[in-house]
Amino acid sequence: MATDNEQRMRAASARTLGHDRPPDPRYRALAEDLRDRVTGEVQFDEYAQVLYATDGSIYQARPAGVVVPRDVADVRAAIEVATAYDAPILPRGAGSSLAGQAVGPGCVVLDFSRYMDDVVEIDPDARRATVQPGVVQDHLDAALEEHGLKFPPDPASSNRATIGGGIGNNSTGAHSVRYGITDAYTEELRVVLPDGELIHTREVVLDSPEYEEIVSADTREAAIYETVRELVEDNREEIEERYPTLKRSVSGYNLHKVIYENDDGEAVINLSKLFVGAEGTLGVIVEATLSLVTKPEETALALYCFEDLIDALSAVPEALEYPVSAVELMDDEVFRLAADSDGYAEYVEPIPERTAAALMLEWDDELVSADGVAGGATDSAAAAAPRLPTTGASTRRSRRPSRTRPPGSSTTATPSR
Ligand SMILES: Cc1cc2nc3c(=O)[nH]c(=O)nc-3n(C[C@H](O)[C@H](O)[C@H](O)COP(=O)(O)OP(=O)(O)OC[C@H]3O[C@@H](n4cnc5c(N)ncnc54)[C@H](O)[C@@H]3O)c2cc1C
After folding, report:
1. Whether domain 4-111 has CATH 3.30.360.10
2. Ligand 1 closest atom vs CA 56
3. How far, in Å, is the centroid of ligand 1 from the Cα of 100?
4. 4-54: per-residue pLDDT in tens?
5. How far, in Å, from the CA of 6 to the mean position of ligand 1?
6. Using a 6 Å cutoff on CB, does residue 94 contact ligand 1?
7. Is 153 in the pocket of ligand 1 (CB under 6 A)?
């Protein structure tokens, strides 16, 4: 039971934040129709609008309201209602993206982080996992740990970032030099289209019976397959010539990755690749099947400290000539904040005083050839580490136990597309 004082404080806070006010009259009918159709939460009060008006970026925009779906049926219903009102739909995970993608004026936010956050299935033999979009990346990796597997794209925000948001953003992290980015690991999706139709995107061999069955139906899915195929085939040269060769491609739709040759040499179309990096603009992902990699048994870290940030940046191309599995740059602001914190101060102590920036390089036992270097990743790191013009360097072995591998072997799949 709340005390009188608590009740007074709650009432005051509700008044201040507008929690007790009726929904914005502009959106009243929309909110009512959503409540009729959705079993999850529908929040159109001012409190929810203010809460979801910000994300990890500098931008702010007040949505019409928020739907917290419990299942796919809720998502389909919410999209059908919002579309009928011509209201923009904004799928959202943790809202940690940095360029304003997770906020929008007058939109209906679909928050996947609360209920649709399950790991549905792990298939260790096929190295695949099927997840709901709201699962936090670290939670997925924790579930994969016992199988010695991991989902490779690792944004620094992985303790809150969701898989759905990572697919929306085509996310990656320090290990992108080793594994590439999210589109290489997104194999199948279940996506709700703007009219509420649910489709299952996967690798489909062009002109196969499966393909013909899809395109012969009188559905929006059929139209999408045909339109995308025509677009890619008619503009193949332009796409090949003009798409920039970026490691991280999020500057437009992935038309250059949607039709490709599979491992059996067949021409296939996989619309999943198109939804990756689309920032939720093509459809709302309600389930994803991801490919996984083995987690290295042993890693070693080398920290290169520089007196000048530009020197640290200039050293990156040289560092990439070595078999590093991760590259990360930190500046003195990070060290200053770490030094002031209880949890991280001890890690700053070994860093030389004049350090303006540090380059962190990682080696792992799968990537570093064991040829001629005994003792696993740490010794390999010491031997292979580039001699960069630094103020100092140190190496540290990870806590995972060492394991013997045949020289030059690598059990981890590297992205092929
Ligand atoms: C401190 C910090 C460090 C970061 N480091 C990195 C980094 O190293 N690498 C990196 O890539 N990014 C980084 N980011 C950016 C961001 O955290 C990541 O891109 C992250 O993967 C986004 O996940 P999210 O759940 O927060 O997505 P959100 O921000 O909620 O959404 C991201 C995009 O995906 C769309 N989306 C969300 N869910 C769905 C869905 N179900 N269906 C369709 N579309 C959907 C959204 O509409 C939006 O366009 C960092 C951010 C912060 C704050």
Report:
1. no
2. 53
3. 10
4. 887 777 676 666 555 555 567 789 999 999 999 999 999 999 899 999 999
5. 36
6. yes
7. no
End-to-end CA distance of the chain: 58
Q: Measured between alpha carbons, how far is 262 from 204 in angstroms, rounded to an integer?
A: 10
CA of 96 from ligand 1 middle (Å) equals: 5
- Tally of residues, the chain: 417
Q: For the domain with range 299-397, which CATH number is right: 3.30.70.2190, 3.40.1080.10, 1.20.1250.20, 2.40.37.10?
A: 3.30.70.2190
CA dihedral of 87, 92, 96, 97, whole degrees rounded to 10: -60
H/E run at residue 187? strand 186-192
This prediction has a pTM of 0.86
C-beta of 171 in contact with ligand 1 (< 6 A):
yes
- Tell me, in angstroms, the distance from the centre of ligand 1 to residue 123's CA: 25
Q: Please write the tens of the pLDDT for every residue from 66-109.
A: 999 999 999 999 999 999 999 999 999 999 999 999 999 999 99
Collapsing DSSP to helix, strand or coil, 60 comes out as strand
Report the pLDDT value the prediction gives residue 4, as an integer from 0 to 100.
82
With a 6 Å cutoff on the Cβ, whether 173 touches ligand 1 is: yes
